[in-house]
Amino acid sequence: MTKSPLVPAVVFGGLLATGLIGGGAMVGQGVINARVGDRTVTVKGLAERNVEADLAVLPLKSTASGEVLSEVQGRIDGDLATVRQFLTQQGYPAEAINLGQLSVADTRSREWGTQGNGPRFIVSQTVVVRTGDVARVQGTTRALNELVRQGVVLQDFAGPTYVFTGLNEVRPAMIGEATAAAKSGAQRFAQDSGARLGPIRQATQGSFEILARDEVDSETSTPDKKVRVVTTITYGLR
Question: I need a surface site. Which of 70, 80, 83, 121 has the fewest CB within 10 A?
Answer without folding.
Answer: 70
